[in-house]
Every structure is written in C-alpha cells, then in structure tokens.
Amino acid sequence: MPAPAIRRYRPEDRDAVFDICTRTAEAGGDARGVYRDQELLPNIFAAPYTALEPDLAFVLDDGAGAVGYVLGTSDTARFVRDFRARWLPAVADRHPLPAGEPGTPDEVMAALLHRPERLLVPELASYPAHLHIDLLPAYQGRGHGRALLSTLLAALAQAGAPRVHLGMVTANTAARAFYDRMGFHEIPVPDPGVLTYLGRPTLQ
User: Domain limits of the chain?
Assistant: First the structure.
C-alpha cells in the first residue's frame, strides 16, 4: 500500500467524508450509535464546506480512499450567508427544524443546522477563517493531522485570511493537546457552552 497522501477533495469522496465525520463526532469518538440519521452531522459539519468552499477541502487518501479530512472557510461571515442562502435550502427538507424545544440528539443538531448564524461570535471576528479536521483513529498520532492542518493553513493564508479559529468540545482533551502543539491558543468567549474556542495565525 502506498503511504497516505493529501489531495483535494473530490465528489467521489462524499461517502467516506460522511463516514469519517460521524465516526469522530462524539468528542472525538464514534457517534453512529448516538444519532438516528447518519447524514445529519456531516450535513452540518462537513458537506457544506465541500459544497461552498471546495478549494479549501482536502482529504488524506490511503490509496483506497479518504481516511481523514480538513475543511474550512477563509471568511466565516460569507460562509454563514452562503450556508443560509445556498446550503440550508438543499438539506432542510431532510432535516426539518424541530417544533418546540429539541428533545433528542437529532433534534438538537437539526436546530443547529437551521441556525448558521451561531458561527458569528463577536470575539472571533479578528479570526475570520475557521476549520474542521477529522481523522479515523487508525491514522491519528502519526503526523497526518499536522500535515493536513498545515496544508489548510497555507491555503487559507493564500486566500487572504490572516487568522483562523475553531470550536472544539472541551471534553476532547486529546484534540486540545494536538491543537496546542499546532500553535493554537484559547480565545476567551463568554458562556461558550460545551465548546472551547482556539485560534492562531494562518502563517507562523
């Protein structure tokens, strides 16, 4: 088998990216037993980026297909507008807005889908880009995450974004250690809920 290599996302990577997203979504662990609709999380956290920002979507390919990815946007405010205008209409029928207070994990996430403006956090305004990165467990701890992230940081810098942020589940301590090693620092945000926000320059 050839060594895993980074390349741009292709439409035929869709199913693999959806699978990776779901298998790493529960504080870094497998969320397949948590959500009934296995396309819900990818349609929030992965597919909009491949559709709206394909030039900033990269996968790690082990020769048989994608086993990890990094996705992002160079301009969160623009991404939110495009999500509202172009992405949400394409998936809203599959994932309708819950009536009343969300009661199940699927309803909680569907409510997030319908509220892309949640990404517009004032304290993050000077970090206009944001990203998502996920790797299957067998490929973690081997330098692939660093390589993927470095690839996206270079692409974001080329796109004109000076700084990037991400929101991570605070309980995911392994991810936090990785981001610390990659030069991210915590960005104070009032009442962040279950998330911690981190940021860094795109070039360093």
Answer: 5-161
User: Helix, strand, coil proportions of the chain in percent (round to 5)?
Assistant: 45, 20, 35
Q: For residue 2, what pLDDT is reported? A: 77
pTM, to two decimals:
0.94
Q: Do 20 and 40 contact (CB within 8 A), yes or no?
A: no
| Cβ atoms of residues 123 and 188 within 8 Å | yes
Report CA-CA distances (Å) from 168 to 62, 151, 159, 192.
26, 20, 24, 10
Which residues have a Cβ under 8 Å from the Cβ of 72 and sit 6 or more positions away? 49, 53, 56, 57, 129, 130, 131, 132, 152, 156, 164
Over residues 20-62, the pLDDT tens digits come to 999 998 877 888 999 999 999 999 999 999 999 999 999 999 9
What pairing do the DSSP bridges indicate for beta strands 129-135 and 163-169?
parallel
Q: Which CATH superfamily is domain 5-161 in?
A: Gcn5-related N-acetyltransferase (GNAT) (3.40.630.30)
Read off the pLDDT of residues 159-191 as tens digits, 9 standing for 90 and up: 999 999 999 999 889 899 999 999 999 999 998
